[in-house]
Amino acid sequence: MGSKFKNLGLIGLGMVAGVAVSMQFSALAQKEATQPIPLKELQSLSNVFGLIKSSYVEPVEDSKLISDAISGMVTSLDPHSAYLDKKSFKDLNESTQGRFVGLGIEVGMEDGYVKVVSPIEDSPAYRAGLKPGDLITRLDSQPVKGLTLDEAVKKMRGEPNTKITLTIARKTEDKPIVVTITREIIKQQSVKAKIVEPGYAWLRVSQFQEPTVDDMVKKLQGLYAQDPNIKGLVLDLRNDPGGVLPGAIGVSAAFLPKDVAVVSTKGQMDDQNVTYYARREYYSGRTLSDPLSKLPEAVKNVPMVVLINTGSASASEIVAGALQDYKRATIMGTQSFGKGSVQSIIRFPVNAKEPDFAVKLTTARYYTPKDRSIQARGIEPDLLVEETAEGDGLNTFRSREADLQKHLSNDKDKEISRPKVDEQEEEKKLLELAKKVKPLEYGSKEDFQLTQALNHLKGLPVKLAERKEKDTDAKSEKSEKSEKTDKSDKSHGNHSEPKKK
Description:
This protein has twelve helices and 22 strands. It is an alpha+beta fold. A hairpin with a 2-residue loop joins β13 (191-197) and β14.
């Protein structure tokens, strides 16, 4: 009972057709099994198993009954715990490297259909014109309804240069859209950067992967080579669904003082009660060299704004929370997703290189340096700025962690509850808005939130959102009035380190 197992800590969000949830490799000791086995309940399970074997309308394989029973037991816990067969486990491993075979779309389930959350830039799905909110109703000739998300994802993945035909239902179209897409080996570039105007730079992390820290260092080196006198930096984490924990620690450490606490975890197992610091061993793994040592010194003190929105989850929330706690950056945008739980991968049989199956189990919660729980609450921006001057666009209708059934609660304070709405009325509004809203290219001249971030860095007025609580209104008005004279400590690296654990 007291055996060891290999554990993979996950902080990603959602299933992806070609981009599965990312992970961090670590070895944890299994908690000693002190609870007695519930023999009466196991006897009930055995009775049902025997009943199905003897009386179901057609024969069912033992392995299917057992795997389905495990799957049901795990998935009933929370939205992020899951059963992984061999193929799913393999896909999960591949995704950490930012290289995989598939269509290149992040997906979820809605009303029994596969819903496109976001197509990956420059992927086959992106080039085929798939859009967020599209519902995939058929895969080749097979209806999606009746399939689990895992089953649908498996069908969308495959070998390079093979084709699959998708039938798409789009709210702005009267007829189904049929598109044939060729699967590819997709290399996702998780970091982008450019000088948006003289003296001001934009750095975007779209997902936290194993190469993210190294890629970020190269991009920052390039920015400072292009403009050695950068006066302000915008770190863009909008719609970043998360990824590997070392990536989040490394990105945070690039801008924070050495050795400060970045994030901590708390769970039942002793090995899950850990504080992670801005040190090489926490973000570069077994590599002896420190990739952050190659960064220009100016990076530690450059005034910063971090952009987040409802799609910013998990690892991106860890970065935003750490930079916010140390007042290293101004957090701007809208409230993040609120995915602050740790998922661990336990292989069965234990320590097998190619396990029979694995279980993805929620084992801990994440906390910011000031011990704020991210779970089901997310990160609230210092300056609430919506996606456009007219409002928050389609983000207004996006669900958050707190909207998910059986979500893990926030153990620190009361969760933010979202008001109940008339779903049919909201559907009409969404349809009307979808016809008007054009897809936003992050980092472009039309990027309203980026423009406001640059205004803040320059000490110019920022157009804040109107939908605020009274106390937040007062705080924002005060912040806006002081921008021209004060630039804000949050943008100038004024470090007041929280108490370490």
